Amino acid sequence: MQSPPTPFPDATGARRRRLLAAGLALPALPWLAAPALSQVLPQPPAAAGAAGAITAPERALFVRPHLAGMKPGQTLQYGFRHAGTLEAGFDDSVTIHLGPAAEGGCCSARGEFLSGPRSMVLPDLPSATSNPVILYFLERDVREMQRLTRGQQNHFRKRIRLALAERGQMREVTLRWRGQPVAGSEITVSPYLDDPNRMRFERFAGKHYSFVLSEAVPGGVVALRSTVAGEGGAAEPLIEDILTLDGAEPPPPART
Q1: DSSP-H helix ranges across 80-221
Q2: What is the pTM (predicted TM-score) of this model?
Q3: Are 160 and 190 in contact (CB under 8 A)?
Q4: Would you say 57 and 134 are in contact if contact means Cβ atoms under 8 Å apart?
Q5: At 91, which helix (H) or strand (E)?
Q6: Strand, helix or coil at 79?
Q7: Which residue, 172, 243, 175, 245, is CA-closest to 209?
Q8: Structure-model confidence comparison of residues 55 and 4, the more confident one
Q9: Residue 194 pLDDT level (bands cut at 50, 70, 90)
């Protein structure tokens, strides 16, 4: 599969300029090339028009300081489940280790995404304010899309970024955390439905993503999910990956 000749040929001029300024539309720049998208995305000017502003889904995922209130030495722990009829499922874990940021305070981040032969090599982030587990989840997802379709990772990254900028849906939800109701939000997007290259991976073109966030939980991320519906109306999905927050470990006690 060949990448489009321009980063986002179907984006408006204002949108394309905004994405380029944010460092998101560079065709050779994976989202993990920068320390974190929270450092790449600028705050939009107060007078910016709607076409040039960062959308609410983008802000919630990539700009919001999910790690506010976390402390160096804490770890965020997530469960990961891969299921569906396409191939054998498995359960695994994801851990984000937080340390002092390069400039002091919190946080630097080191990720352990899955284990054994499934583990994904990730760069350490010397400074992060948004939770990098979102980027890590998406990075694994596009690598899986490449494995299954033989398409280009960069093409799938660009489709996800464009869809979040142009068509991401966001709604307020009430969740339960530690037995208590908490406020949160859910962002949903289906980035490949209008992909001009979808015939090359038609089996997976309906892939749907859900991001559930809440400022009331450690690290701000409650659950991430990507789903390909079952073929022929089957009740069980073809593929489903779900990452869910298990909790956060406190920092070790200070040495005396």
Answers
A1: 133-149, 153-167
A2: 0.80
A3: no
A4: no
A5: strand 90-100
A6: strand
A7: 243
A8: 55
A9: very high
